[in-house]
Write a structure and sequence with these properties.
CATH class of the largest domain: Mainly Alpha
Number of domains: 2
CATH superfamily of the largest domain: Transferase(Phosphotransferase) domain 1
CATH architecture of the largest domain: Orthogonal Bundle
Order of helices and strands: HEHEEHEEEHHEEHHEEEEHHEEHEEHHH
Strand order of the largest sheet: 1-2-3-5-4
Radius of gyration: 21 Å
Distance between the termini: 48 Å
Length: 351
């Protein structure tokens, strides 16, 4: 057993065995668990994160020890209850809670794998694989929105990729609540915030740069006249359609209708179009020397008999035709992930 640092002011029983079954093994940096810049301030307030062992089920779990000796904020209780109702293998599961003021804690799924931030730093994936990963993430977030549980603090450290487990998103609703910010789950604010965050993560996977204002380990995205360059202007080989979808997502706009707000579900469906060779974006300014947003143009459907005969298959399976298994992503693992986490959207089922 790893020797752990004992949180001050906690009962001795809680130091070794929470709830009679959870053994604290290793303290973890909240910057790795709580998305955004509020981790250090939360630690100062008494919150701590731990890797622990569920002695009853013999599995690793993540435990948030909340400040002792004070009631748990209702905001946190509501967020945890909402997140616990969302059941999707791509979202970290809430296992247990205890709101006893002497030692309140939250138990969630332990999520191994590589943060998107570290994944990008190790090497960029093929654009098709990047689109598939964020389409999967957007589809999972869309399901959470249907359950009225937005994420609200999606960052490069909220998304993990593991060759064996596939995609995992951590901190659904909870990160925002612990940081004291949780707007109305039914408002457009949550949908817009999550959509823009997914667009930023897609941009990072395509270019290696971060287009957001918050600090990350990634270099800031290049800009021209105050505007972020489009992925196609930063990295050669990004398809024009994917370039337009990404840029519009950063603005919170649907790629085919700039006046219509984009949603995670809409972003997932749009990204699935990138996997279809029979779809092309036309009228885009592909030869612009300046770093200005590419024109979205119009989407035209050019169906071919060959593609009609072959079919399309699952989203992640279709990314294996290119050099998409860079950054340590093995083809077999992606195949398994594609089978394990099929898209639940209508477009995904239709191929």
């Amino acid at each position: 057993m790893t020797v752990v640092e004992v949180p001050s002011g906690r009962p001795a029983a809680a130091q070794s065995r929470l709830g009679g079954r959870f053994r604290l093994d290793e303290r973890i940096n909240l910057d790795d668990q709580i998305s955004g810049p509020c981790g250090p301030s939360l630690e100062a307030s008494g919150l701590s994160g731990w890797k622990a062992t569920d002695r009853l089920l013999g599995r690793s779990v993540t435990i948030y020890l909340l400040p002792a000796g004070r009631p748990v904020p209702p905001l946190v209780v509501e967020a945890v209850q909402a997140a616990a109702k969302v059941n999707d293998p791509r979202l970290a599961t809430i296992y247990d809670t205890d709101w006893d003021p002497e030692c309140p804690f939250i138990v969630s799924e332990w999520t191994p794998g590589t943060h998107l931030e570290d994944l990008v730093l190790s090497g960029l994936p093929d654009p098709a694989l990047a689109a598939a990963m964020i389409a999967d993430a957007a589809d999972a977030i869309a399901l959470a929105h249907q359950a009225r549980c937005p994420h609200l603090r999606l960052t490069p450290r909220s998304l993990r990729w593991d060759p064996g487990c596939g995609l995992k998103i951590t901190g659904l609703g909870i990160d925002a609540a612990l940081c004291g910010a949780l707007p109305d789950s039914e408002s457009a604010t949550g949908r817009e915030a999550d959509t823009r965050a997914l667009g930023r993560m897609l941009y990072a996977l395509l270019t290696g740069y971060w287009p957001g204002e918050d600090a990350t380990a990634l270099m800031p995205a290049p800009r021209h006249k105050g505007r972020v360059c489009t992925p196609r202007q930063v990295r050669a080989g990004v398809p024009a359609l994917l370039d337009a979808i990404t840029f519009r997502a950063l603005q919170g706009q649907a790629p085919d209708a700039p006046l219509r707000p984009q949603t995670p579900a809409g972003l997932a469906m749009a990204l699935q179009m990138v996997q279809r060779p029979s779809y092309q974006l036309t009228d885009a300014d592909e030869d612009s020397a300046e770093c200005t947003p590419s024109r979205a143009g119009r989407i035209t459907h050019r169906a071919s008999a060959r593609h009609a005969r072959k079919g399309t298959g699952s989203l992640l399976l279709r990314t294996l035709s290119g050099p998409g298994c860079a950054a340590g992503l093995r083809p077999a693992a992606v195949l398994a992930a594609g089978d394990q986490y099929p898209s639940r959207s209508a477009a995904g089922r239709a191929g």
